[in-house]
C-alpha cells in the first residue's frame, strides 16, 4: 500500500491485511517518522521544525529545541489520539501511533541532503529529493 502517513488509515488497513506499506512523505509532525524508524534524533543536534535553526546551534537555541521537543509529545498525543483509538478498535489490540508507523517497509522521503541538514537515517529510508523542482527557465 502506497500512502502518506499523515492520516494513518492506510497503515491500519495494511496491518489488517498483512501487506507491506510504502510511505511517501516530506516529514511527520513531532518527528514521528524518526521515532517510528528508530533514527537517532537528539535535540542538541537535530533542529525542530519551524524553528529556523541549523545543525550549528547556540546553547540558547539548543535549550529552546529541547523544550520544543518535549512539548511536541503532548500535542501529538492529543492530535493522533483518534487514530490510535480507531486502530485499537479495528485491530482488536492496543496500538500507539509510533507502533503503527513502525511497520512501514520503505519510507520515501521528499527531501535532499543538499537542502536539509544531514541526519542519521535507517536503511529503509530513501531520499527522493528534487521531485518537486520545476524546470529551469
Automatic annotation (TrEMBL):
It is a single-pass membrane protein. It is found in: Membrane. Pfam families: UDPGT (PF00201). GO terms for cellular component: membrane. It comes from the Eukaryota. One of its GO terms (molecular function) is UDP-glycosyltransferase activity. InterPro entries: UDP-glycosyltransferase, UDP_glucos_trans. Keywords: Glycosyltransferase, Membrane, Transferase, Transmembrane, Transmembrane helix. Belongs to the UDP-glycosyltransferase family. This is UDP-glucuronosyltransferase 1-5.
